[in-house]
Amino acid sequence: MTRFSGWNVLWQGMTGQKGWSRQWRDPQPKSHYDVIIVGGGLHGLATAYYLASNHGIRNIAVLEKSWLGGGNAGRNTTIVRSNYARPGNREFYEHSLKLWENLSHDLNYNVMFSQRSHIALLHSPGAIDGAARNYNTMRLTGTPDAEIWDLDRLKQAVPHLNYAPDARFPIMGAAVQTRAGTARHDAVAWGYARAADQLGVDIVQNCGVTGIVREAGRITALETPRGRITAGKIGFSVAGNTSRLWTMAGLGRLPIESHKLQAFVSEPLKPLLDQVVVFGMGGSHFYISQSDKGGMVFGGDLDWYKSYAQRGNLPIVQDVAEAAMSVMPCLGRVKLLRHWAGVVDMSMDGSHFICRTPLDNLYLNTGWNYGGFKASPASGWWFADLIANDRPAPMIANFDLKRFERGLQIDERGAGPDPKLHG
Amino acid sequence: MIRIPCPFCGPRDHAEFSYGGDGSITYPALDAPLEAWHDAVFLRVNICGRQVETWQHVHGCRLWLKVERDTMSHEIYSVTPADPALAKVLEGGE
C-alpha cells in the first residue's frame, strides 16, 4: 500500500493518479482469529488498530454487516470536544481529544481535524453560573482551553447569530472550548481501516453475525454468512444494535434503549460559520457547523421514542428548523440538501460502557448515547487495552454494567434513568 | 409521522403524545429488595420489533395509553387505556 506524503501526492499528480493502490484488502475470513471485533464502525476499527499497534496482537478480524462508514460512522455531525465535567467522563474525553490532535499523523491519513472552537450559547445568569462552574472544574482538572466569553467577544467571533434584544432567547454569553472542532467522519473510518489493515487486521465487510455458539461461560464461535469463525476473544462494538447481539448471545437485559437521532445538511454556502455553535434552551436544542464543502451541518434532539428504523420523523424537522431560525435567522432561505437518522444506544445515565461481560471471552463497548463520534479514538484505545489485558484500566473502571447496582450514575445532564433525555 | 388511534379522541399524529417508555415493566412493591428495583429501573430487553409501551395523549384527552408498536416499522397493532379498569369499561365489560 502506498504511504501518503507530499512527494507521493506530487508524483501521482504528474503521472495521472494511476499509481495508487487500494486502501485495505478484501480478505476471505479465516476460520480462527485471536480477537474478533463485531462492528466495523469507528469504535470497532479504532479498537482493532490499537490492539495491533499498542498491544502487538495481529491475528484480528473486524466483522462489518454492511460497508465501512455505512452505519453511525456516516450518520453523525462530526463534532469533537472534551468539555465534560463529571469525573470519569472528563479524563476520558480529554484523552480522546489528545488522540484526535495527532490522529492524522498517527494514521498517515488526513482526517481533516479542524480545531475551530465549540461555542455553547448561554441565555441566563443561571446558565452562565452553571457553565462557569463546569468549565472551572475542567480547567482545574486538565482541560486548559475551557473559557467563558462575554457578549462582546462572542459578537466579534460569531457575527451572524441573533443578538437582537427582541430575540426569543436573547444571548448573554457563551461557554467555549477552543481546542474542540470537527473532523471528516468518512476519513476517520477509512484512516483507521487502512492503518489497521496495514498491521495485518482482516476487515471483513458484508459479514454480519447471524448466530452465536456458546459453551458454558464462553463464546466458542460466531456464525456468519461467510462461514463459522472461532475466536479467542470477542468484542461487541455495534452502536444501535447491541441489545440484538446481546440477546443472540443469550445474555438477557441491558441498561440500553435504541433511539434515533436525526441530522441535516444544507446546500453549500460561502464561508459563514467558522465554529461549532450549540444552543439549548428549555425543550429547544440546536447545533450547527459548516463543513469544508460549505454545507451547514446541523441537528437537534432525539426523536423522543424508541426506534430501530434509520429514518426520522417530521416533528423534529420542524423543531430543528424553529431553533435554527431563532439562533441564526440568516438561514431562513437556505435549502436542505440531505437529512438522515442514526440509531444510537442510549444508556440509563447518558454515559458509556467499556467492560467485561458475564461471558469469559466476551467484551462490550456500547452506550455512546448522543455523541460517540468524538469518543472513537479513546474508546478504541481503552477497549483494546481491556481486551488485551483482561482488566479494566483506572480510566474505564467505572464504565461497567454493574455501576447502577453500586449506586453510581455518571449523569452529565442530570436527567435521571430515562434514556430519551440524555441528548 | 406515526398515527396513534386514541381510544377516546380517534387517530391523531404522534406529535400530540408524549412517550412514556417500555410498558412491559411491572414496578415492584415499595419494600421489594433493591435488586428488584434496580432491574425495573435500569434494565431493558430493548426489543427490535413488536413491543408494548406507554404514551400519554397530552394534547388531547391526557389519558395514559398502552400502545403495541413495532420499533422497526413503526406499525401500531393496538392501543388501550393504561388503566386496566378503564380499558375494561371501554371494551364494554363491567
From TrEMBL, chain A:
Entry annotated with the keyword Flavoprotein: yes
The Swiss-Prot or TrEMBL record describes its family as follows: Belongs to the SoxB family.
Residue ranges of domain Rhodanese in the record: 35-79
Which protein is depicted? Sarcosine oxidase subunit beta
Annotated catalysed reactions: sarcosine + O2 + H2O = formaldehyde + glycine + H2O2; sarcosine + (6S)-5,6,7,8-tetrahydrofolate + O2 = (6R)-5,10-methylene-5,6,7,8-tetrahydrofolate + glycine + H2O2
The main location class comes to cytoplasm
Pfam families for this protein: DAO (PF01266)
Its localization reads: Cytoplasm
State which Enzyme Commission number(s) the record gives: 1.5.3.24
Q: Does the keyword Flavoprotein apply?
A: yes
- Which co-factor is required? FAD; FMN
In terms of domain of life, where is this protein from? Bacteria
NCBIfam families in the cross-refs: soxB
EC top class named in words: oxidoreductase
Q: Which UniProt keywords apply?
A: Cytoplasm, FAD, Flavoprotein, FMN, Nucleotide-binding, Oxidoreductase, Plasmid
From TrEMBL, chain B:
Highest rank taxon of the organism: Bacteria
Show the Gene3D superfamilies listed in the entry: Folate-binding superfamily
Q: Which UniProt keywords apply?
A: Plasmid
Cross-referenced Pfam families: SoxD
What is the protein named? Sarcosine oxidase subunit delta
